[in-house]
Amino acid sequence: MKDLKRTKIKELLDAPVIGKKVNVKGWVRTFRNNQFIAINDGSTINNIQGVVDFENTDEKLLKRITTGACISVTGDLAESKGKGQSVEIIVENIEILGDADPEKFPLQPKKHSLEFLREIAHLRVRTNTFSAIYRIRHAMIFAVHKFFTDRGFYNVHTPIITGSDAEGAGEMFRVTTLDPANPAKDEDGNINYKEDFFGKETNLTVSGQLEGETACMGLSEIYTFGPTFRAENSNTSRHLAEFWMIEPEMAFYDINDNMDLAEAFVKYLVNYALDNCSDDLAFLNQRALDDEKTKPQQERSELSLLERLKFVAENDFERVTYTEAIDILRNSKPNKKKKFQYLIEGWGADLQSEHERFLVEKHFKKPVILYNYPKDIKAFYMRQNDDGKTVAAMDVLFPGIGEIIGGSQREERYGILKQRIDEIGIPEKDLWWYLELRKFGSAPHSGFGLGFERMIQFVTGMTNIRDVIPFPRTPDNAEF
Ligand code: ATP
Ligand code: MN
């Protein structure tokens, strides 16, 4: 009997064969009345119930069936008489694979706060909420690759350790093997990076874009999907020090093609989740509804999680220029009543997340793509528009999240790019290879970056980004 091959709980529930002898292995969620074990193996949000003949089972064994214990159960599959499940296993044999001392195991069958669960991130995958998030995260990884593969894009690995400090998207983490207590120094007493591992200063990447652009200049359409690091000291619910970013880069796309692709991409991901993660989404939807009930009326969201997902999948995003957005914001109630922390005085102001959220959540009530930003608040590589003031940048803004995508048409004209680099004061030696792309066979091209965890936040409805990555890295926190 012990040799019976294990069946995953999902398989048993999807296609049950009544009367068949089966073996499942998993973790005990609850054990009721010395009789009913709810077992979960992570293959689905649903548990299978094992029914124990307690009168004929060793009492010592029964005592070891506790929440969190890992067990192997063998028995016949039968139609269930109880509510809540259609089939159950009539247990013939139980083996305890791993005990979980109920006095010490921190997860008990009750609602734990997300803050508490973050402190036990090594165990939180054993809750319904986190196993659902992990499964959806996997489905989204797969959907990203499928979306681009189906469109003829190639996945490219760009370096994680970068020698270019012109990526310009935030503070970087240094990578070094120099002895911090006694680093090599040059004649002027400065740290001598010539003595360092790579013979120069290196950092963890903040974006694969610049290297991604090199690949699109030969493969036409590429995307990267890799770890990204930013040493921003911002303790928000939307920033991680280590996160994953998807960066497509396309030759022959202008800013409009870029916006079309970005919109199609996020809609595809949302639809993929709706089609393939319905059990997990139904669970998270209910979880969010229960949560809402504890909040005052005015703080509750108008739409449920599932309604929000369907809304995004079915409606066109609003495309608005930066200039139009500034007009809307300047004349908005919170600006006039000085409710914004940063008041919008005029054209040229950088938009804060309070402004982005006003546009998305209050004014348009749908996802918004803002484009054509002032060149002075955007990166050097964005294509200058003919007005001389703006660049062909675009940000996709989502309800509850703010910026989920940032992108642009890239400056493909050598002279204009070189001039901008000089204006900003980036040494040419840092970007010689990037400039060469514009010297040899340059082409109009565009791209964007989607923050993967922000997308997972939207799809799962989790309000804190620390809850959508297994082990979050944030200021003062690198446990596990
Ligand atoms: P923000 O203004 O929200 O800090 P950003 O403008 O610095 O973002 P980009 O450099 O445009 O971001 O990066 C592209 C995308 O990467 C963003 O739209 C966002 O989805 C994601 N992203 C950026 N920084 C972080 C971070 N620290 N943690 C998680 N995701 C991030
Ligand atoms: Mn951005």
Automatic annotation (TrEMBL):
EC number of the protein: 6.1.1.22
| Reactions the enzyme catalyzes | tRNA(Asn) + L-asparagine + ATP = L-asparaginyl-tRNA(Asn) + AMP + diphosphate + H(+)
InterPro entries found in the cross-reference section: Aa-tRNA-synt_II (IPR004364), aa-tRNA-synth_II (IPR006195), aa-tRNA-synth_II/BPL/LPL (IPR045864), Asn-tRNA-ligase (IPR004522), Asp/Asn-tRNA-synth_IIb (IPR002312), NA-bd_OB-fold (IPR012340), NA-bd_OB_tRNA (IPR004365)
Subcellular compartments: Cytoplasm
Report the superkingdom from the record: Bacteria
Q: Where's the Aminoacyl-transfer RNA synthetases class-II family profile domain?
A: 134-470
One GO term in the molecular function aspect is: nucleic acid binding
Self-association or partners: how does it assemble? Homodimer.
Recorded protein name is Asparagine--tRNA ligase
